[in-house]
Amino acid sequence: xxxxxxxxxxxxxxxxxxxxxxxxxxxxxxxxxxxxxxxxxxxxxxxxxxxxxxxxxxxxxxxxxxxxxxxxxxxxxxxxxxxxxxxxxxxxxxxxxxxxxxxxxxxxxxxxxxxxxxxxxxxxxxxxxxxxxxxxxxxxxxxxxxxxxxxxxxxxxxxxxxxxxxxxxxxxxxxxxxxxxxxxxxxxxxxxxxxxxxxxxxxxxxxxxxxxxxxxxxxxxxxxxxxxxxxxxxxxxxxxxxxxxxxxxxxxxxxxxxxxxxxxxxxxxxxxxxxxxxxxxxxxxxxxxxxxxxxxxxxxxxxxxxxxxxxxxxxxxxxxxxxxxxxxxxxxxxxxxxxxxxxxxxxxxxxxxxxxx
Length: 357
Hints:
By secondary structure, this protein is of the alpha/beta class. Helix content is 44%, strand content 14%. Helix 9 crosses helix 10 (210-221). The chain starts with a strand and ends with a helix. The relative contact order is 0.09.
């Protein structure tokens, strides 16, 4: 689909599958393909795969575009046989003229992966212009970038693209929880494409989180993108199902608890104007706002919750059960379930009617 940003079309490469397969080899063919389709609907252009994934998927489905990681001549032959038109190579392949000639002969778009962890690394990457095979490379993927806290890396990366007359893809690692920010900084400064993973999942430090990048692009940077992110909750559930990984409730964008609210001021603010606390509506990412009741709740929050549960009462009645709610919440060390709130209301109401209060 690509993401449009002014005059720049930024393509998105997703590398979630290789990271999943590195830890879970039992992923099935249909699970892998369906997961890719879900991500494609959100805006992903290309899906990175390797031999292990291709062994499971077999014949590649029409309608999905893949980038195949090349390790040796067998991978190249497999790439050609399956009709994959894009690949990723490392220096070991770049320095083998015969293998590069084979890729060029079959018109396979080739990306060279280059790690950048220190500013000095940018000097060595410029030396690629002396490599005889550099003309056979279409894109350089810059991996790493996680140690840079100043925008100097942007200028150096873009200068590489200009000097080598080559497209630039960035794949920031997330060692210090800045992968998503680095991706967005790169997009805003004219990078041709980005490589990310769903939830930022990676076997080492992880990568920029696909869902965070898309929401930031849609909400903060360019609202005209009109990306449909309403399937994010569905994708999250499916991801958890096929990987067995539990998403933390406070995970940005996809955590099931990020739209829960409880405290009195918070609840009152949401009731009057949701923009007070929410940058975007929950339905934009396939979620719902949820009022929880616990030890921090106030009378208006309890009143609103009772109303949601179909119980009509006055604010004063809601205030009358606050102590019971807080006591039970502290006892169980959690927010209360709906049926517990109803039970407290009914019990207190019956107690009051009995003339004991």
